[in-house]
What does this fold into?
Amino acid sequence: MTHVSLEQVAAYYNVPLPELHRVGSETRTRCFLTCGRNCETGDRVLAIQTEHRAKQWHCHQYGCGKGGNLISLCDLMKPGANGGGRPRGDRFKEIAADLQAMAGGVLAAPAASRVAPPKATATEEEKRNAPLAESSNERARGLLKLDEKFVVDVAAMPPKASAYLRRRPFLSLEVCKKWRVGYLPRDTGGDHAGGTMRGKIVYGYLSDTGNVLTWFGRDPEFEEKHQQWAASGKSEREPEKFHFVKGFHRGLELFGQHAIRSPESAEKLKSLGLVLVEGPNDVIRLDTLGVPAVALCSNRISREQAAKAASLARELAGGVVTILLDCDPEGEEGMKQCLGYLAQLVPVRLAWTSRMFGGKFKGRQPESLMLQEWSEISEYQRTGEAKGWSPNQ
It folds into this structure.
């Protein structure tokens, strides 16, 4: 591994590399791995330590978190059934032989085992999220009312799930029912409804017209699992925070898109612009404060999401998008990427940064906002008048 570069591996397997960006000791790029992703990623989500002897890497795409070393990169680039970045048995032996060949100066794998040239990008007609009610899969149609199996009473949930909701008191019983959110028990009555969503806090992802497109789950044990993973030396695959079903094109949609057309949202959208946040809890929390918003379900925006946000902003929000991603380093990197994509389409502004408002919101997420804090942010957006700080600081 010490003597093989990322470029050598890509050339050996005939994988075209996207543009590479040098950021400190890391090389950042768009995800190009065969990792099961179902939407386009930002152009710096994959962080690879190309100078490290083992080529350690990590994916910062929202809901992914995969990582590993050069062997796992090879597994996710080499054609054939991969091991999800953890090759074993014959697959591991084949990759070891490939690395030996690369280190020995072999430039390309045998023709039969090389990756075929990339196919043309799917058209918009092909990349579509059909409502569950229209699915040709009977099991998928059977998930249309999955929320009828949700537990929304925190007293009836397992400790980790109840703690997740107790830390977010805005997720009240009424709010959970409104947004089709709840805990899906591991035992759903013998029908195994929900599959990989069982044992998670599950959210409904609705279309513009309010039809269920899919369900996605948040692991209430993620924080504990992540600490254990970090303490173990990060030798295994990083735990998954959010789980989306395979085949759902997350990059085509905006969470909360069904709710912003309500009559009560009209005036607020015109004064605030289309508020764009990262996650579903941010949308739900802002809704409880009377603020309509939509989420990327990522800290990066896709081209399709940018086009959709711009279209909604023109139609409903005075043609302006207001970015309110998490006020931490990852969120601020996402803000820059969002600005680059959206500013080509509509006027765009930042609701906060770690330096605005005297730095008081540094490290915060929209879901943590209190009404008085949001009032301060929105007042500055409307008037440009700052209280207790200078925009020039």
